[in-house]
Task: inverse folding
């Protein structure tokens, strides 16, 4: 059987994205595993997510709803009560996500200048986090019997003793959590690169279209959360000649306001903080993008 | 036995051999730089040589001659619509072309003997804006193209400065373009 050239081109593009982003992503996973194994030896049990099975069902089987309702499709591993799920955390986490490891990937694959725009967004987000009290919210997840079971299980399970064993478990769990979203995000980027003509992207998000930075975050809603892999779609959009403002808006919003991440935030922190974060990120990123376009700044990607 | 060895001779040889090696390496390095700076005044599809001239028609019937672009950096990209790596790298080439058009960059996408309608459809659907001459079979032989895509990076003086057999990503393209811009 011979595959059509477009399908093969798509696979080649996905391979290219793995070659471009793979080393940094593997380094980020390794670094995170080292950090977690060293700093929080008891927390290893909660880093074994199985969300890929649910996501696979949603995206490959036409969104067939699993028992437990639509919301259960995006059910993420519950937060341990000790870690807390206060409103401050949603902003704090967003500010971290903006800068790492996407900042490194931005510097390597796009332009070192664009890292400054990420810092420009991360600073107000972390400042906003101080407006909220740093208290542990009532454990909403305990309402669900399965969540309580998981927490109890994770608390009951003894952490592995040796550092190397903890590191290995964490690394494999991180890789497991990353693998499907990474492939999916790269596939999305490859689809944009191969199948969407440049003139289509340019007519919406190109130079001279002031609404480009406002609309481009909508493309990011389709992405799956895996910090850093969203950059493939940003790179694909820059290849398709989006304006600097639209590109920056994509760069800043894609890691933060994907549909799955929004539902995740909704489950962890509640609806209001999620909506506030969504609007703040959209407003700041799109505003910065519009300003860059007005002043004719070139990212030189 | 030790008395038989002439230590003075050994010292002399030990001094001479490293000196000769260093001198050889220096000469080789000088020779290489001279070649890469000036280039060889012969036509061959090889790095450091003058890019062989060709004259082809594009799918609109316009005549395209390589020597007409002397004074401008040129990418000669041999491709075909049935070739998956060609399709994968074309968006990157388009982005690079738009980026460096102001620096005079010319891209010639030499198609491998396909019919005009097929090329026109693919190029117009993809929105590729560089020139696409159609090869009659001779240019591919002249440039010794054995696989698609194959790219030649020709500088302003007409010398080939880089080549690539197979597809290129953004980084690979930028590295080679830096040699001709």
Result:
């Amino acid at each position: 059987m011979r595959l059509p050239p477009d399908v093969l081109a798509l696979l080649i593009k996905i391979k290219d994205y793995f070659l471009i982003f793979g080393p940094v992503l593997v380094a980020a996973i390794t670094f995170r595993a080292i950090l977690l194994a060293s700093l929080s030896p008891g927390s290893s049990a909660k880093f074994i997510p199985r969300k890929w099975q649910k996501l696979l069902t949603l995206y490959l089987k036409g969104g067939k709803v699993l028992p437990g309702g639509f919301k259960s499709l995006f059910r993420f591993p519950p937060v341990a009560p000790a870690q807390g799920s206060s409103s401050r955390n949603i902003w704090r986490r967003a500010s971290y996500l903006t800068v790492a490891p996407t900042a490194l990937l931005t510097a390597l694959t796009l332009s070192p200048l664009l890292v400054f725009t990420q810092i420009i967004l991360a600073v107000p987000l972390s400042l906003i986090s101080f407006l909220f009290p740093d208290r542990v919210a009532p454990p909403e997840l305990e309402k669900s019997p399965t969540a309580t079971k998981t927490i109890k299980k994770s608390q009951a399970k003894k952490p592995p003793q040796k550092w190397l064993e903890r590191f290995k478990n964490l690394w494999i769990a991180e890789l497991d959590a990353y693998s499907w979203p990474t492939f999916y995000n790269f596939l999305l980027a490859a689809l944009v690169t191969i199948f969407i003509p440049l003139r289509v992207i340019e007519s919406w998000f190109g130079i001279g279209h002031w609404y480009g930075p406002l609309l481009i975050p909508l493309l990011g809603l389709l992405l799956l959360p895996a910090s850093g892999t969203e950059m493939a779609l940003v790179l694909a959009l820059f290849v398709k000649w989006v304006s600097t403002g639209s590109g920056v808006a994509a760069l800043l919003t894609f890691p933060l306001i994907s549909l799955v991440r929004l539902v995740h935030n909704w489950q962890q922190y509640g609806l209001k903080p999620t909506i506030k974060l969504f609007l703040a990120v959209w407003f700041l990123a799109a505003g910065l993008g519009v300003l860059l376009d007005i002043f004719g700044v070139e990212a030189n990607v | 036995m030790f008395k038989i060895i002439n230590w003075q001779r050994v010292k002399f040889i030990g001094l001479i051999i490293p000196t000769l090696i260093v001198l050889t390496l220096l000469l080789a390095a000088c020779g290489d730089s001279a070649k890469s700076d000036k280039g060889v005044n012969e036509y061959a599809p090889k790095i450091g040589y003058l890019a062989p001239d060709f004259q082809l028609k594009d799918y609109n019937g316009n005549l395209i001659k390589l020597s007409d672009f002397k004074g401008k950096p040129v990418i000669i990209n041999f491709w075909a619509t049935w070739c998956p790596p060609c399709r994968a790298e074309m968006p990157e080439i388009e982005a690079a072309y738009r980026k460096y058009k102001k620096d005079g960059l010319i891209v010639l996408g030499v198609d491998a003997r396909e019919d005009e309608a097929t090329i026109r459809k693919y190029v117009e659907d993809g929105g590729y804006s560089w020139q696409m001459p159609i090869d009659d079979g001779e240019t591919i032989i002249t440039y010794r193209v054995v696989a698609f895509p194959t790219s030649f990076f020709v500088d302003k003086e007409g010398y080939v400065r880089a080549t690539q057999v197979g597809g290129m990503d953004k980084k690979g393209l930028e590295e080679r373009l830096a040699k001709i811009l």
